[in-house]
């Protein structure tokens, strides 16, 4: 898309797909995970892991931006705070065919803070707005922001409204709100996912005060029922770790959330399709355990799930491991219905 910088209009839209999305999760939502999840749901919006602008500008951008066409709709999440650098990375993403650019303003880790991006940017709303405006001017893709409801002492509703107002004025196409504040000092990233209380009421209030801005709820959504409940008041729901540990909660998403009446897949159909993908990747030199680790939750809650996980964990990391490991794990789990 060499002419992407000339005219940002017309804008693309993901309003329908945004009804349900899977959160960007570092070390988890890589391209193999996303391909697997796409086999379960055709419509759910998927996000990459966060990729920093520095990594894209100075690293192996081809590897970092690689994905399979089957993963669409697919959003790229960027970490950074320099408007010009973010605009350049957005151009790379547009040229690669991504469907959305998302800016991470929610990660509380020390490393991210030291790089001046993530949740600490909530203290600099004007800079975040400048970043959004720069990316929006650079590409014809939706530009969104994922953020918290506050950080440290900057946690009043008035401050949050002022932050969101600047994003809206800058042309932000949607916000994804993790309904917890982040403590940048004193809590680890893991603790920041659990300890600060969930405040869905604050996100609902944002929708009341910004009725024309698409708002997606993130944080504590564990089931499709919870996602559907949030959709009665908001524009979208984003599920995180619950969908990774038990991906089959997405199996009914196409019907229940997107109104697609095609028959639901079976776990066996999904596994067979993924094994065909894995065979291609093995031929390209990808080790089996880089892919199989994302399959551990496929049979969560089913007879034989423990045997399935054990076989993969014991065998997939070995040198030369191939598709036979997955077939053996499936057979072992099916033959142990009480495990």
TrEMBL record:
The reply to whether Aminoacyl-tRNA synthetase figures as a keyword in the UniProt entry is no
**Cited InterPro entries:** Aldolase_TIM, DUS-like_FMN-bd, DUS_fam, DusA, tRNA_hU_synthase_CS
Tell me where in this chain the DUS-like FMN-binding domain is found. Answer: 22-326
Sorted alphabetically, which CDD domains does this protein's record hold? Answer: DUS_like_FMN
| Chain's role | Catalyzes the synthesis of 5,6-dihydrouridine (D), a modified base found in the D-loop of most tRNAs, via the reduction of the C5-C6 double bond in target uridines. Specifically modifies U20 and U20a in tRNAs.
The coenzyme or cofactor needed here is:
FMN
Report which reactions are catalysed by this protein: 5,6-dihydrouridine(20) in tRNA + NADP(+) = uridine(20) in tRNA + NADPH + H(+); 5,6-dihydrouridine(20a) in tRNA + NAD(+) = uridine(20a) in tRNA + NADH + H(+); 5,6-dihydrouridine(20) in tRNA + NAD(+) = uridine(20) in tRNA + NADH + H(+); 5,6-dihydrouridine(20a) in tRNA + NADP(+) = uridine(20a) in tRNA + NADPH + H(+)
Catalytic residues?
A: 107 (proton donor)
Similarity comment: Belongs to the Dus family. DusA subfamily. Belongs to the dus family.
Indicate which residues the UniProt annotation says bind FMN.
24-26, 77, 146, 178, 218-220, 240-241
Identify this protein by name. tRNA-dihydrouridine(20/20a) synthase
Q: What PANTHER family would the database entry show? A: FMN-LINKED OXIDOREDUCTASES SUPERFAMILY PROTEIN
Concerning SUPFAM superfamilies, the annotation shows:
FMN-linked oxidoreductases
Query: Is tRNA-binding among this UniProt entry's keywords?
Result: yes
Q: Name one Pfam family in it.
A: Dus
Which Gene Ontology molecular function entries are recorded, alphabetically? flavin adenine dinucleotide binding; FMN binding; tRNA binding; tRNA-dihydrouridine20 synthase activity; tRNA-dihydrouridine20a synthase activity
Enzyme class per UniProt: oxidoreductase
Which EC numbers does the record give?
A: 1.3.1.91
